[in-house]
Specification:
This protein has helices spanning 26-39, 57-70, 87-94, and strands at 8-14, 19-23, 46-53. The chain is of the alpha+beta class and 95 residues long. The chain has one domain. A three-stranded antiparallel beta sheet has the order 2-1-3.
Length: 95
């Protein structure tokens, strides 16, 4: 049976073209989508949530960092992410 608390990483794509990368369960991805929509005063319209399970929380952090890094990081104006995440140092150690 699928566990709604299973660790993973995700990318939320909003209909306005913005994205947000995070880590956590699929339920956490939904919470993040609403939070980002409220924070940025955008409608709560998502076009996609790409969630991938991870073997551990540590791997989920690495996967999140990889997603953000592959999308030009927090400096990309199309990302709602405003900071590097804890997985970023683990990701860089793996390089």
């Amino acid at each position: 049976m699928w566990d709604p608390k299973h660790p993973g990483s995700y990318t939320i794509k909003f209909k306005n073209g913005k994205r947000y990368h995070g880590q956590g369960s699929f339920a956490r991805a939904l919470q993040s989508a609403k939070y980002q929509a409220d924070l940025h005063k955008t409608s709560f319209e998502i076009s996609d949530i790409d969630w991938t399970p991870a073997d551990s929380d540590a791997q989920a952090y690495r996967d999140e960092a990889t997603r953000l890094e592959n999308d030009e990081g927090k400096a990309n104006s199309d990302n709602y992410n405003q900071r590097d995440f804890p997985g970023s140092h683990k990701y860089k150690q793996d390089q």
